[in-house]
Here is the input.
Amino acid sequence: MSRRLQKELRDLETNGTPVGIKLLSADDFQTWYLSIEVLGDTVYQGEVFALRFRFDSTYPIVAPSVTFVVDDQYTAPIHPHVYSNGHICASILGNEWSPVLTVNAVCLTLQSMLASCKRKERPPDNDRYVSHAPSDPRKTRWDFHDDSAVLYVRALAPYARRLRVTRRRAQELLVPQTYISAYQKPRSGSQITRAVNTVGTCTSSYGVPDVTW
Here is the structure.
């Protein structure tokens, strides 16, 4: 784990983070904080959020625990797939996780998820889930009902160089095949764009017995 995170941290410090994303702190290999802002004309214009990444010895085989920070300084974005306690319903953090995915890739996906939002609203089961939620969202059983949320994720050429594979193969690794709904040719030599289904309508059932969603 530490070797992988050392490499990711070195890449973040050397190559920087994507536009709208900043590394706030990475003092150890257990917890990292990054800020995320959605630029342009979106429902979150002017708002800045913070993500908390918690790693354990299973990373990168298993996804890190990723939540939006909720404290005196930050709040969780009001979004159909983000609960008020900061937990995120996104398949990239669960059954669609791939060991090739990085902190940068997760941030890009969540930034795209926010950018695609047209109306601010909480998940329909927000109050019930928050009252029963585990501290680690990875213990939640998420149900993804809808594949209509099409988002764009950009895989930058440096990923391919670091992985020593072709850019197209790097894209396939960064975005699990089950996400893919369409493909667009690269707009330039430095970027590949795929349309992907990252999250749909989400509900949870952790700690709520005998409930049908």
